[in-house]
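Supplementary Note 3. Input sequence used for the single-chain structure prediction.
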Amino acid sequence: CDLYKHQYDNIEEMQANAKLIAASPDLLEALQGLMKEYKSIADSGDCGWWKAEEQEKYIIAEKAIEKAIK
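The predicted structure, written as C-alpha coordinates, is reproduced below.
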Protein backbone atom coordinates (compact mmCIF):
# COMPACT_ATOMS: atom_id res chain seq x y z
CA CYS A 1 0.00 0.00 0.00
CA ASP A 2 1.45 3.38 -0.99
CA LEU A 3 0.10 4.97 2.18
CA TYR A 4 2.74 3.29 4.34
CA LYS A 5 5.54 2.97 1.78
CA HIS A 6 7.25 6.25 2.75
CA GLN A 7 7.63 5.07 6.35
CA TYR A 8 9.91 2.22 5.31
CA ASP A 9 11.96 3.85 2.54
CA ASN A 10 14.97 4.42 4.79
CA ILE A 11 15.74 1.10 6.45
CA GLU A 12 18.97 2.45 7.98
CA GLU A 13 17.07 5.21 9.75
CA MET A 14 14.46 2.76 10.95
CA GLN A 15 17.17 0.46 12.36
CA ALA A 16 18.95 3.39 14.04
CA ASN A 17 15.67 4.49 15.64
CA ALA A 18 15.04 0.95 16.87
CA LYS A 19 18.51 0.83 18.46
CA LEU A 20 17.97 4.19 20.14
CA ILE A 21 14.60 3.09 21.50
CA ALA A 22 16.13 -0.16 22.79
CA ALA A 23 18.94 1.75 24.53
CA SER A 24 16.72 4.47 26.00
CA PRO A 25 16.15 2.87 29.44
CA ASP A 26 19.91 2.49 29.91
CA LEU A 27 20.54 6.03 28.65
CA LEU A 28 17.95 7.43 31.05
CA GLU A 29 19.43 5.56 33.99
CA ALA A 30 22.95 6.71 33.09
CA LEU A 31 21.87 10.34 32.74
CA GLN A 32 20.05 10.23 36.08
CA GLY A 33 23.18 8.82 37.72
CA LEU A 34 25.41 11.46 36.16
CA MET A 35 23.04 14.21 37.26
CA LYS A 36 23.11 12.92 40.84
CA GLU A 37 26.93 12.82 40.86
CA TYR A 38 27.19 16.25 39.23
CA LYS A 39 24.88 17.78 41.84
CA SER A 40 26.78 16.04 44.63
CA ILE A 41 30.06 17.52 43.43
CA ALA A 42 28.51 20.97 43.08
CA ASP A 43 26.98 20.78 46.56
CA SER A 44 30.21 19.53 48.18
CA GLY A 45 32.16 22.72 47.52
CA ASP A 46 35.21 20.71 46.46
CA CYS A 47 35.21 22.49 43.09
CA GLY A 48 34.17 25.88 44.37
CA TRP A 49 30.69 27.01 45.23
CA TRP A 50 28.17 26.87 42.42
CA LYS A 51 24.69 25.53 41.90
CA ALA A 52 24.20 22.69 39.45
CA GLU A 53 20.55 23.67 39.08
CA GLU A 54 21.60 26.98 37.50
CA GLN A 55 23.87 25.45 34.86
CA GLU A 56 22.46 25.40 31.32
CA LYS A 57 23.41 21.77 30.58
CA TYR A 58 21.96 20.61 33.90
CA ILE A 59 18.67 22.34 33.11
CA ILE A 60 18.58 20.78 29.63
CA ALA A 61 19.25 17.34 31.09
CA GLU A 62 16.55 17.80 33.74
CA LYS A 63 14.04 18.69 31.03
CA ALA A 64 15.04 15.66 28.97
CA ILE A 65 14.59 13.37 31.98
CA GLU A 66 11.22 14.92 32.77
CA LYS A 67 10.12 14.46 29.17
CA ALA A 68 11.18 10.81 29.25
CA ILE A 69 9.37 9.89 32.44
CA LYS A 70 6.12 11.81 32.00
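The mean pLDDT is 89. Residues 11-44 form the longest helix (34 residues).
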